[in-house]
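Human: Cast an eye over this sequence-structure pair and say how the chain folds.
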Amino acid sequence: MRCLLATGGWKELNFRSRAIYSSFLSNLLGMDWRYGALHFMQHLLDGDCAINHYQWAMQAGVTHCVDKSWTRIYNPGEAAIARCDPQGKFIKRWLPELAEVPIEKLAGNLQNYGYSSPMLDYRQARQQRVKQLERQRSAFREQENVLPYLARMPKLPIPFAMSDADEQADWISNPNPPLFAAALDLNSLDNQQAVNLRTWLVAHVEIKPHKQSSLKPKAEKTSNKKAKPKTEVKAAQLSLSETLF
């Protein structure tokens, strides 16, 4: 986080870097994603609350429909090198104590180079998080009425962990409908509206992770068989507008 504090992330922390940090804090360390989201918003020069907070929640696995059977959990060492910094320039710039470490060793155990030992075992932490998400999604998916499982907005929605910074939260104390629409009153929904709301959270199609494309293009196969017409899968999402507004 030296980079975030020094630069505000502008032109320094790309999307993948921020995603790795979010996944590490919420999925591997097991911390509430809102701590990280607020920390970033307090320091980002290009921070956008809607994008930043949603991405943090998504990386934590709490925004997708519960029919999704997988969650992307990054291996911080491998992903940081392979996807973001293959030459090790970023890491060595902000961690000068690793300046002499060979690039091929940056994603491994760095204790031999005087760096601190890993704070967790990636495979073990990932397995625990996957099982936790599976339990949560399974319990949620079997409920027709999802209202008891949804969090309510507090009466005074001061941003998370900002109770000691009132001067920074004045903007949210005064109603501003054009900027912040009123929260949906979950307690006022009837049974049918609760069923409709469930369609916002539970998809009717199976979502699978994208398969990695092969490096070599596959040769086109010639066949006399007629190609089967592609069927379009439609997933309906019901609206609350007719019954609420």
